[in-house]
């Protein structure tokens, strides 16, 4: 039972909150509508001020909603517009905090997964994929996620997926090659295998052949073979990003190293990629593998060290392995490497 006066106070509070959010939405919307390359500096500055004046959660939700409404439409969005919107997210991600990019990324990936499963005729999938590609281009997310998406698309391998693979490779193929050439090579091999087995089922054979040619051109670092490939706009905006990001370097250390599976299973694993995010779920994924690994490391330690560990009351596997690492390392670098393992 809620007494009338308390109920009244709650209602006025809700109305007040709604009014505040409405005002915030209008301000953010106004800034996003004016967004273009020349005024990106001033708009990102104003957005940062809004982040300082309002709660992070409200700002993240408002910004994500407005950007999704602006960029995810049934018609293909101009690439330039996409890049500018994502660049704004990237600047805020580096200057305000990584939860800005993380919130936006999670929303985009979930929406992308929904549209992939549905039979929507529009261009929503391409638009969402372009957002993910540019989040990678502007150092918000690590190439791990892009490879996860490509593997998923290759495993399904229908006409729609082939189009999406081509679209993604055209946007970020050469960056992927630079970041992880081996993973790209494995992906190409897998795609060739799929193309051979799915030959009879697919009507449009030329598209598959074109996709394989594009992949081989990527592997051989041959930019001429990819029609319409133009890295200039991205490079130009990356330069602008470097001038607007306050932290040193291009922000490789703030890249979110998160897999597709983790993003889709947030309820099971929590948002472990955001520092300080609270989570009240079931215990994290089963640790049987990590236990076996610890035992393996321990096996290499000598019985003398093990005896010392026992004397120092190192009574769990992990304590013993840390003790052994510290006692047997040659120097601090060696200890650091072993502890990371």
Can you describe this structure?
This protein is mostly helical and 341 residues long. Residues 286-297 have low confidence and may be disordered. The chain is built from 17 helices and no strands. The N and C termini lie far apart (55 Å). The chain has helices at 4-33, 40-53, 56-71, 79-95, 98-117, 124-137, 143-156, 159-179, 181-197, 205-219, 232-244, 260-264, 266-269, 288-299, 303-311, 317-328, 332-340. It has 2 domains: 4-269, Serine Threonine Protein Phosphatase 5, Tetratricopeptide repeat, CATH 1.25.40.180; 303-340, no CATH class. Helix 8 (159-179) runs antiparallel to helix 9 (181-197). The radius of gyration is 24 Å and the shape is globular.
By CATH reckoning, the class of the largest domain would read: Mainly Alpha
Structural class: mainly alpha
The radius of gyration computed from the alpha-carbon positions, rounded to a whole number of angstroms, is 24 Å
Helix content: over 70%
